[in-house]
Amino acid sequence: MKLQHIDIHNAITALSCALDLVGVDEVRHGKRVAIIARTIAQHLNWPEAECLSILYSGMLHDCGVSRIHEHHQLTETLEWDGAEDHCIRGADYLSACQPLAHLSAEIRYHHTRWEELLELAVDRRLSLRANLLYLSDRIDMLQAPFMSSGRILIEYPAIIAQIKTLSGILFAPELVDAFVEVANVEAFWLAMEPEYLDEDLRRIGSHIPTTLLDIPALKELARLFSRVVDAKSPYTDEHSQRVAHIARQLAIDFGIGGYELEQVEIAGLLHDIGKLRVSEDIIDKPGSLTPEERATMHRHSYDTLRILQRVFDDSKIPEWAGFHHETLLGDGYPFKNGTKELDLECRIIAVADIFQALAQHRPYRHSMSLEYILNDLQMRVATGHLDAEVVAKLTDNAELYYQLAVA
Ligand SMILES: [Fe+2]
Ligand SMILES: [Fe+2]
Ligand SMILES: [Fe+2]
pLDDT tens-digit profile of 25-62? Predict the structure, then answer.
């Protein structure tokens, strides 16, 4: 278990894949914005540290967007009236996450017109960084429709011309000038293709000194992403954070400590990260799901596993999080794992997940009483789905766990 060996570049790159899932079929937006912003920053000879930091804020700039409908609005119009909400939310999430707090202010202003930034008298370096994110974001919005068809090589002069008309209004003239200089060649646009994008991000990562995250920093990063996931729906408000608290307490009751305990908590925080790909129309649906909707919903724990494998290569976190819908009987998903494959930590997270979900109001039912929940868990033990010892530990201290779930 090498939890202490997580590198920040790798963690941000991998977790930004989860943010990019909110686009559903329009993925990699954050990564393209990151590469566009860094390319322009380098052309302007910004210090290397600032070029790297703009790469990270590019990948994270839309961390305030959890809902697919909001994502669509942002990618359909050049300026959308509701754009500021996700800037405020994203800045709020980042400011609470110590390793990324320094990116919070530029994310706050990443949809603010340049002429407004001048009026607000925001610090000039900060204004430029925020506005570079805005510019890169809008360039990507304009190019995205042509990416898959390859028409971008025909369309890019029109995009450059359109951006030029916004110089001094939406965007800082010096940023627009730099963009025009670097984007006037095919190579700029071809670098946005998925395999080249991923390669470039890997290459950048291999050329910078490794910055390792300590455990508190890693937990703050996990908490940030749990907030993005929980904001997907009002019905899942604080779900991941509460599952993490319950799982941590259960693990302590089982005598688990040290790194293992921290990993249980992180797995709890991130267990639903794959849900970012599921439309809120499905999550918020009051009735039963159609077979197609259920299939979409059922892929989320697999997506969780794959995303977390990229971050926590050498740890059990991906499995403990990704197996939370498996059952001891082997009729869960997505692997149909059974008793043999499910560590105590997986069983703990599965129980914590169901316990918290039942205690929470959902679109298709009200929150359940403690008595009802304990009965329900007992039934799941009797049918061979949940671990008897884990449910017994929770039942021993039921009031405390109920507090952790809803209070
Ligand atoms: Fe945005
Ligand atoms: Fe964006
Ligand atoms: Fe789940």
Answer: 667 999 999 999 999 999 999 999 999 999 999 999 99
- Ligand positioned closest to the Cα atom of 283: 3
DSSP type of residue 299: T
- Distance (Å, rounded) from C-alpha 139 to C-alpha 349? 42
Using a cut of 0.85, tell me whether the model's pTM lies above it: yes
Q: Given 31, 219, 232, 275, which residue is catalytic?
A: 275
Bond from prior residue into 334 cis (ω within 30 degrees of 0): yes
d(CA 319, CA 349): 11
Domain total of the chain:
2
Q: Are residues 259 and 125 in the same domain?
A: no
Identify whether residues 346 and 273 lie together within a single domain. Answer: yes
Q: Do residues 109 and 30 share a domain?
A: yes
d(CA 323, ligand 2 centre) in Å: 31
Q: Are residues 166 and 291 in the same domain?
A: no
**pLDDT one-digit tens code per residue, 200-255:** 999 999 999 998 999 999 999 999 999 999 999 888 889 999 999 999 999 999 99
Residues around ion ligand 1, judged by CB within 5 A, are 62
Ligand lying nearest the CA atom of residue 80: 1
Please give the distance, rounded to the nearest whole angstrom, from the Cα atom of residue 65 to the centre of ligand 3: 19
Name the residue range of residue 55's domain: 3-206
Inter-residue contact 226 to 271 (CB < 8 Å): no
- Give distance in angstroms: CA of 400 to centre of ligand 2: 41
Domain end point (choices 170, 187, 206): 206
Concerning whether 2 is annotated as a catalytic residue, the answer is no
Q: Separation of 123 CA from ligand 1 center, angstroms?
A: 20
